[in-house]
């Protein structure tokens, strides 16, 4: 990205000055190196978002930002419904509520290492993964409606988990406001056998161990110690979320024209929050969020079953479950006033600081766990939200490494056997449903997650707590 059009605020914050049709400035959190590596399209998309009605404070990009549909991936923007604020499909994305759930196992690395291949094989054969993957749960349209309203609470009520799991899930496992009547029959038909499946693309299930602790107080609150084995599940709302986005791109394209909203990029179509179209999209999107939360809850149940077979002494508990493709109604301070805003986070993670009543009692004093997934075979990180991050970015942080290379470019550069062998040499067991998918997600196709996390830490968006390294990975 060209730096000459930016104003440097400090080593980790850069501003795109407000000009032309921009209603607010743009704000990019990045080191100089990460900024120079960003596609110029990121600056353009941050600028476009800054032109939308009702946006407050700034159009924001995280340090892992890269080009997306409408909003950049790694984009954050908050809209005031009382000031004509809008809601946008492009601000949420196609994989609604794609997110990460981190599970604690009660085991140490040395207990798991001798059986890691058996464990990965059992997980690979138990949890459906890959394009179009289907699970054992078959749901009628009416039954699926219950999932879309109930989320993870539905799953727990059906025996897929434990009631205490819900305390450690964003929104306590269910986003209010969901209305299945706002979701098309086509979307529901595509989902009827996909609850409890991992999917493809950058989705994964990974067994990891805690390699470093940076913040002992927060680590203790999270129940983490050196050598602890954790399981990270990265997936979303599957076909249902994609179909909801596809359906509402058409609805909001018409709404943009109807309400006279200038659109600078076709995937940036939107509708006023208080319009019938905007309200219907929000209710449909909430269904997508609940579908994803139910999906990760069922996968958690399957993980417990596998560990019970391979390592019976394991005790699987939820550290936290957080989404990174959502629009949430939240209260934030704007110009000295507490306002209810619609916060879009696309490829960005909610990262609330201490004292938020929505957080579990155990985390109240330290803040919300922020789970940052690395690329396959690299480190991942657990951070904690900060009050400073709430002020700077509506309580948001990065969500992963962020791509530097397209999937097509990756396919030209590597072979599956090369990647498997490279990971094997690192002591990492990998299983994948698709060789193509494995190559597309090659670690070198992503930014250095450690650099991305360091920027989030030094910019005050979230604070580093622990570094985890992979022992085994399942890819779709």
Write up what this structure looks like.
- By secondary structure, the protein is of the alpha+beta class.
- It has one domain (7-475): tRNA-splicing ligase RtcB (Alpha-Beta Complex).
- It is 33% helix and 26% strand.
- It is built from 14 helices and 19 strands.
- The chain has helices at residues 32-37, 40-49, 109-112, 116-126, 141-157, 185-191, 216-222, 238-258, 276-310, 387-393, 407-413, 416-425, 435-440, 449-458; strands at 7-10, 13-16, 26-29, 59-66, 73-79, 86-88, 99-108, 204-213, 228-235, 270-272, 317-323, 325-334, 337-346, 348-350, 369-372, 380-385, 396-398, 429-432, 462-475.
- The strands form 4 sheets. Strands 7, 8, 9, 11, 15, 16, 18 and 19 form an 8-stranded mixed sheet that branches. A 7-stranded mixed sheet has the order 1-2-3-4-5-13-12, sandwiched between helices. It has a two-stranded antiparallel ribbon with strand order 6-10.
- α4 packs across α9 and α8 packs antiparallel against α9.
- The protein is globular, with a radius of gyration of 21 Å.
- The two termini are 32 Å apart.
Beta-strand fraction estimate:
25-35%
The main β sheet shows up as: 8 strands, mixed
Mean pLDDT: 94
CATH architecture heading:
Alpha-Beta Complex
End-to-end Cα distance, whole Å, is 32 Å
What's the total count of β strands? Answer: 19
**Count of discrete domains:** 1
CATH superfamily: tRNA-splicing ligase RtcB
Give the overall shape.
globular
Which residues sit in consecutive blocks of at least 5 with pLDDT less than 50? Answer: none
